[in-house]
Amino acid sequence: MDPVKEVSIKSMSRNMHKSRVFGYAYIVLLAAELCIKMCLYMQQTNITLYILDGGGTTVIVGAVTAAQLISSLIFRPIAGTISDRSRLIPMLFGAIGYMAVTSIWLMGVPVAYAPLVAAMQGMCFSFTSTGVYSLAADVVPEEHVTHCYTYLNLVETAAAAVSAALAIHLRNISGNGLVFRVVFGISLAVVGCMMLLSLTSWKKNGGHYYHPSRLFSDYRKAKRAEKARGVKSEGFFAKVVDKNAFRPAAFYMMIMFAGQAVIGYLVAYGKAENIPNPGVFFTVQAVTVYIASLFVGHIDERFGSKAVLLPGFAFYFLAMATALFPLSYTTIFISGIFFGLGVALVQPELSSLAVRMAGAEHRGKANSTVGVMMDIGGASAGLIFGFMIDTSGYRSIYAFAALIIVLIAVVYIIMNKKKQIL
Length: 422
Fold this sequence. Notes:
- By secondary structure, the chain is mainly α.
- It has helices spanning 9-15, 24-53, 58-83, 88-107, 114-138, 145-174, 176-199, 215-228, 236-240, 246-263, 266-272, 280-303, 306-322, 329-358, 363-392, 394-417; strands spanning 202-203, 209-210.
- The protein is 78% helix and 1% strand.
- The protein is globular and about 60 Å long.
């Protein structure tokens, strides 16, 4: 047998039904995802403090967040289209680009130019994350896609748990430069993971061999088959957004909007309240996510998405409501538990819904759609919350985020009754 055999994505999914989740490729992808998210969260924490230390305001912090996410929003459709042709090209491009952008931070960036560099960073992140999530769904059994995204979410949570505290610790030792040097080293590890995937083929269930770079051939075969059947060419919107994945992605957008109140501003809020290390929130969140994630996949398989999402929305609301109380380690701890439960239940479930509703042939575009909507939510939140903090203080953004969560839950209940979402 040829060591690198071309197979269609559909055949690949059917043949992998009995294979284990934690194969070689998936483990390498988990390692890559851990490194990618550590880079993201360490940069996010460090750049926020870098701007504030340099005399910048929360408006500039919001502009940096928005610039990064808007850039990611613009480039994700491109990343998704390329990913449906070859999974590894966007991942490798993004990883190398992230190293280059980190080197720019190392040289010292004036606060006024921080949004521009953040935009370059967002472009690189859009390529790596879209490629990782698309390939991850390929190399696990079809019926375990929810578990696949749950484990990716666990890895992301682990990165969030240590990255903020690690960045602050490194800053205390030797300033911003040390943090940027460590991020550069971690991004180099991402490139190493991508090279491992590009240079190695691995055995699939049923004796077939799969190599992600060969997906380009599968995409061309699918397009030729569609042309032979007389399928019309897609319009612009259909090329960048998968219509079947759009509804779960829209919910993800609103969740990311509300969650940005914590992800983007809790560290700065804690510092403003003279709390030495507010990053402990992410550690508490991570422990909670790990415990809760043991049950998410089983709840989904037994009771369906509704039993996962509605409690998840409730926990998100409680996290925001808790943050309305005077900030202390107690409220940080309680809010971290609620936020962790919300993340564990909602995020992997919505990602899984998007992929399942889109179908195996459009996983790249489905993940791109989710990413685009996430970026819209995060970018708009960065701009809006920055101005709200300047005018009304930090608590105002948590009250607004709580109202958004209530709206999400109401809309979901209505759509679920009308069978407009799984």
